[in-house]
Amino acid sequence: MVSATGIWGPLLTVLAFKGEIPVMGRFFYIMAGTFFLLGLFWTVGEKYGIGQMPGDFKFQRGNTVFLLPLGSSLIISFVISLLMWLFDRLRGPRGPW
């Protein structure tokens, strides 16, 4: 067991956790999962036409291309909002505030 005394006590206590993931580690797991899901969504989305929907505008003049994906942004925003609402409902009741 690591002794948590002296100036290094709090650091050693964090490093010698017992089965719990420290906050920074949890953050990196969440970020890795988020990037994985975004990459998966990107590859699957290209296959099924996300980015080429009605409401997605493409302006081209010469060598310059400007893309304005309004339709795709609205659908992605709706899906993310729906998932967040679902996760909030599944988490259950919180405090009295």
Structure write-up:
- By secondary structure, this protein is of the alpha+beta class.
- The chain folds into 2 domains: 20-49; 52-97.
- The protein is 57% helix and 12% strand.
- It has 3 helices and 2 strands, in the order ααββα.
- The chain has a two-stranded antiparallel ribbon.
- The chain starts with 8 loop residues before the first helix and ends in a 6-residue tail after the last helix.
Structure described in brief:
This protein is 57% helix and 12% strand. The chain has 97 residues and is of the alpha+beta class.
Please tag this protein with its features.
3 helices; elongated
Order of helices and strands: HHEEH
Helical content (DSSP H or I, runs of 4+):
55-70%
Query: In percent, how much strand structure appears in the residues?
Result: 5-15%
Rounded to the nearest angstrom, the distance between the terminal CA atoms is: 41 Å
Low-confidence parts lasting 5 or more residues at pLDDT below 50? none
Shape, principal axes of CA atoms: elongated
Q: Count all strands and give the number.
A: 2
Number of spatially distinct domains: 2
Radius of gyration: 22 Å
Q: Sheet bearing the most strands, described?
A: 2 strands, antiparallel
Mean pLDDT across every amino acid position: 77
How many alpha or pi helices? 3
Structural category is alpha+beta
What strand line-up does the widest sheet have?
1-2
Describe the secondary structure blueprint for this structure.
Layout: H1 9-15, H2 23-48, E1 56-61, E2 64-69, H3 70-91
Antiparallel strand pairs: 1-2
